[in-house]
Design brief:
There is one protein chain. By secondary structure, the chain is α+β, with helices and mostly antiparallel strands. Helices cover 39% and strands 15% of the residues.
């Protein structure tokens, strides 16, 4: 399932929705930062192989960057 999840993230990156992703340290899960409308983000999370398989808990948080640059 991990290869499918990673391939999915690569497709999101190539499509411009994924900004950055990586595993937590220690490896207890991961963090995914997406850029898009709430509908786009919700659809992307729902389509993730981890979500579809029921092996990931998700928590979507909208935020407005104040410092740094999101490319």
């Amino acid at each position: 399932l991990l290869p499918e999840h990673r391939a999915y993230l690569e497709r999101l990156r190539d499509g411009g929705l994924l900004v950055v992703s990586g595993r937590r340290s220690p490896w207890t899960g991961g963090v995914i930062v997406l850029r898009g409308t709430r509908e786009q983000v919700d659809a992307a999370v729902a389509a993730d192989p981890f979500t579809r398989a029921g092996v990931a808990e998700t928590d979507g948080v909208a935020f407005e960057p104040m410092f740094g640059e999101v490319r």
